Amino acid sequence: MRENRLRTLFAQKKLALSGWVSMGNSLLAEVVANGGYDAVTVDLQHGLFSVESAIPMLQAISTTDAVPLVRCSENSLGEINKLLDAGAYGVICPLINTADDAERFVRACHYSPRGGRSYGPARGFMYGGPDYFTHANRTILTLAMIETNEGYANAEAILQVPDLDGIFIGPSDLAIEMGLAPDAYETRELNDAIRTLVALAQKHGKYVGIFAGTMDMAQRMKEFGMDLVVPGTDIQQIKAEGARRIAALR
Amino acid sequence: MRENRLRTLFAQKKLALSGWVSMGNSLLAEVVANGGYDAVTVDLQHGLFSVESAIPMLQAISTTDAVPLVRCSENSLGEINKLLDAGAYGVICPLINTADDAERFVRACHYSPRGGRSYGPARGFMYGGPDYFTHANRTILTLAMIETNEGYANAEAILQVPDLDGIFIGPSDLAIEMGLAPDAYETRELNDAIRTLVALAQKHGKYVGIFAGTMDMAQRMKEFGMDLVVPGTDIQQIKAEGARRIAALR
Amino acid sequence: MRENRLRTLFAQKKLALSGWVSMGNSLLAEVVANGGYDAVTVDLQHGLFSVESAIPMLQAISTTDAVPLVRCSENSLGEINKLLDAGAYGVICPLINTADDAERFVRACHYSPRGGRSYGPARGFMYGGPDYFTHANRTILTLAMIETNEGYANAEAILQVPDLDGIFIGPSDLAIEMGLAPDAYETRELNDAIRTLVALAQKHGKYVGIFAGTMDMAQRMKEFGMDLVVPGTDIQQIKAEGARRIAALR
Amino acid sequence: MRENRLRTLFAQKKLALSGWVSMGNSLLAEVVANGGYDAVTVDLQHGLFSVESAIPMLQAISTTDAVPLVRCSENSLGEINKLLDAGAYGVICPLINTADDAERFVRACHYSPRGGRSYGPARGFMYGGPDYFTHANRTILTLAMIETNEGYANAEAILQVPDLDGIFIGPSDLAIEMGLAPDAYETRELNDAIRTLVALAQKHGKYVGIFAGTMDMAQRMKEFGMDLVVPGTDIQQIKAEGARRIAALR
Amino acid sequence: MRENRLRTLFAQKKLALSGWVSMGNSLLAEVVANGGYDAVTVDLQHGLFSVESAIPMLQAISTTDAVPLVRCSENSLGEINKLLDAGAYGVICPLINTADDAERFVRACHYSPRGGRSYGPARGFMYGGPDYFTHANRTILTLAMIETNEGYANAEAILQVPDLDGIFIGPSDLAIEMGLAPDAYETRELNDAIRTLVALAQKHGKYVGIFAGTMDMAQRMKEFGMDLVVPGTDIQQIKAEGARRIAALR
Amino acid sequence: MRENRLRTLFAQKKLALSGWVSMGNSLLAEVVANGGYDAVTVDLQHGLFSVESAIPMLQAISTTDAVPLVRCSENSLGEINKLLDAGAYGVICPLINTADDAERFVRACHYSPRGGRSYGPARGFMYGGPDYFTHANRTILTLAMIETNEGYANAEAILQVPDLDGIFIGPSDLAIEMGLAPDAYETRELNDAIRTLVALAQKHGKYVGIFAGTMDMAQRMKEFGMDLVVPGTDIQQIKAEGARRIAALR
């Protein structure tokens, strides 16, 4: 089975960067995947498209070396299984608030006996190789989102769920839950919480990633020791560069 | 943030009319939205299309003054959040049978601390404005469907769920549950039940809307004091006018 | 090969009515096809969708007895062949201005030796039957649109093109070319021109159809002796019935 | 209401064969439906497409005599209702592990009082007929998938759920749960389990079907007395014939 | 009819900036349209999508004040008419090499008597207003692309075609035709040619626009006196900002 | 620029086999591309989908070593350019009847000075590499279809058009033009004509390929010395294997 290059990067203690696609277009996904990211995440939660559109996006990413990740829209066995069938090599699952949530998520991503993933990996075989079934359980990456007060309080228990590979921090939602603005990326409270989560993950030998709302934050997250940083979305890339171009010409 | 004109109409005690789109086509949505309705509801429950197709439909409605509403397919945080991200200004949620169901629905539509809506309103900002996050909780309209015997029995408890804006009656399903035909719109039992629900909503200062299966029923619902009436679906409009035209020429 | 019921109706001197679909949705096409029309025309010219969306629309119409017609977007061999492959049983071709245009159109619709239609009727075999190739040339209906001054002047020559089945009048474009408003359906000039075209078609034993912009016009067209009348579009049906419903409730 | 030909075949003790469509294309569905199968199953679980794409696929199948079945992606009222609205005449539901699961599934497929199916069968009326509501509960076929150890242990209880029509065996997932490879179709353990399930179904007067991973297995399943056999997927058909053709020419 | 704000800007001698969308996604179009551009061009020539996908993109742009432009894929009456029906307020037509080409293009964009545009502006009425037909001929903007040696040689004749509003320069194709590299934006030859075209356009009182391959070029084009500048595509925006972000974090 | 493996195979006098995709689904394209073919042809002529759907199909093929070919729907600069932009590495063009047709086709596939291909190869750069522009003219394969009596008569002149890489024979259309049935693959006349074309191509040092309607024909075409053979379509593969499976179980 094709290796999961993110696991290799993580093992080498190298920062991995993921692009983030939230518009449902396979050409866009291919453009982002050709841009130099180590991985590209197809976002089914806030991305305004359905699972079906994720298929050609995953195909497009598969024309490159970037690892195809997905963020599922919810902790749903049905949706997660379909995305894995489609060749996703990692899943970021939103709203993991308890160890039970995490266990359910891990089970959705693993074949029996570890979990209850259903068998039918049409694209999995094509992208991963004919020995997909044998190796999938230890190749697919599982990252649980910590983005609520409850999830933050339960983070250590979540991190101890067997076969969960790590956590992924949702800073805007966590900020809102802490009573801050969604873009309060510079506040001490939020950054303290993030540092605590990094330390917890490292203590338990798990990976930790984050979405960075600004480039300043992204730099800081690199310094915090993150394994995986997402430096903004495709929409942010379009907007930032468009604003720069328009300003230069007005 | 752009106002929710339905709230304005409701405050003025004016009857609001909503078009109803159940076929997945953005031009159709724009045609209906240009037809003079105060709102257009994109129906994800019985409408034969997916969330992804709702996006261009909501965009099309947004070219007009009609308020973009959705009926979600079920009481699901993931789906509701995606529809709100896409700029829906109100959600009609099917099958609210208990106050717990209603509370879960309200939480899906509100940001913390009132609820658990996740942050990522791509189109919300574009349609609503840059202050979307600050005002969304009190702008988005939440209407719980009463359409089962259980929901009917629990209607008063449902209406007392804080921050639920009102109820929306599903007369065909309610009729079926009462042992009547789905089109038993003229029966005394059904109409008594509807009147009871209107009175309950008014008692608790909440809004009440309904889908009207026929124009006779729509007229009666206006007289019952409804805040919102849906006078049939797009499919019914196509069929009624088509039958009229064919009959005239045979 | 499945018969072309329009030919049967025409032979019986019965007025045929066709629905008209200009929004790209297969459910809409099925709703219209179930409405009682003898045929349903999928409009690729002013309909805002592509050939690809016409395929499921033709499939949907094929679940009923309504004859699947198309209006192609232009007199293009490539597009016409694809639509015939997809199972269309008749083609209305816009902007036939000369006998040469008509001859080119006829050739696009017929296999050699009469024409240059390319072989590959994937859905043709499924809808029409295994003997499709043998009978297609005499089953498929070809209707040339007369909608310009030039086409009007050349109508008799056009009608004499061998194997052209008839003409279809575009009254709005013809009106514009005559210096009238596009909805000048009641003017004497336009109606005289239409009557002339009907007479010419009948003289040459060809069929004649028309799009009727209003129901008054549709009635008059029936009286003029048309073989085929289209009493408005799907959009008009939606708008007319919507306006009626809204007016009744305001 | 149009009869469900599968029920007729089952009553006649005739083996029914179903095609299996796992790629989201309506032409493909029509090709398979024209191939001679008694039914065609549109697979929403491992099929890489969404509910919306299932609509034109069901329309395409409806141009033939093949019975339109679906496998839903999960035991979800919302999705099942939408598929039934779209004209599916039978539902295969994955991961039925307990009688409670089965009861929930049956309720999703039946109108009140037997279940909680919501009313809005747009295509149901077109495909089934105007008396759809009256007969749907006893026409729609409900098949619960047995594919886990838990489901196997509870099979007899599941089979006794009133109004469940039968079971459908998922051999690969069952094999995995038994500690075997997903393609261990020839092992004694798996075949013993399958025979046990057939006997249980027959004892309770219920139907039993299965997906056959190979043609050898399909033959054996016929001998086991299955009511319904699926001899592989569309993807398998493409691959098997493609490999044969390439091998012949190399 | 809604004004064409580009005409207003041009009349005020203000530089207009257009965004450029070459990926087929309506959310992307809306994001670009909200970015501050005076217009957004939906590129059907090199954009990898079809006319059908342009519809929701034009709808999305119509939720903003940005003027919806299109670049058609070729000088085709059928395609141009469909795009105008869909509400485009201006057309950039590739490969205008002669005055005859330009005349054909102008005729495709105008109703009779000036041209042969067919009547059926479904979205035109919704976006432009009920008086669309009366004013469309003088509202819609027509820009002919000069991008070949032949077109350059015939530029003055092209500019004199009545009712053509102006020209739009394709610098990469023009460079290739001149024997230069497609990105030879800094060469004297190319810039001399561009200046010549600007002077010719101004001499004949016509507008002149250009696609700028780099921001340096965009600045220079502003200085050259262009009426309309496109500072790169959506893909370039995504790539430039992505590269910047990745470089900052490596 | 990535090599065109078909050119390598042709240079080595090895028979190349191409799969043929005529249903618009990217997963199907990927399945066929993984099946062992040297190339996969996306058929825009008789394939029932549009250019837009060809994009994800070409992306899917690009995940494998199979060379992505297209058959365009007609000899149209606009369509051919869009398909090349999308990364097609070869074009089969239908209905080349004269050397002029062939010259026009060649020009559509080559940048200036050899042709008039427009610059904008979004996917070309991603699939081919950053030096795409420099090498595209000699990498892209151009195959002109001979499928009419006229084309057959002009074959030698067509083969002498500079930079045309070869011809591709359409046996069904050629048979029809010769007055035979479309599946007259065993007739002497047709086979004589094919042999003549092979000899002509070889005489002029050009490649020659063919679509084979049956496996017997495919074998014979190999013996005739074809460079490229297409052993049937995806639809034929589905049907052949489906029929085999059903027959075995009845």
Automatic annotation (TrEMBL), chains A, B, C, D, E, F:
Cited Pfam families: HpcH_HpaI
Keywords: Lyase, Metal-binding
GO cellular component: cytoplasm
Lineage: superkingdom: Bacteria
GO MF annotation list: aldehyde-lyase activity; metal ion binding
InterPro entries, per database record: Aldolase/citrate-lyase_domain, HpcH-HpaI_aldolase, Pyrv/PenolPyrv_kinase-like_dom, Pyrv_kinase-like_dom_sf
Residue ranges of every copy of the HpcH/HpaI aldolase/citrate lyase domain listed in the record: 20-237
Similarity-based family: Belongs to the HpcH/HpaI aldolase family.
Name the UniProt record assigns to this protein: 2,4-dihydroxyhept-2-ene-1,7-dioic acid aldolase
Organism: Herbaspirillum robiniae
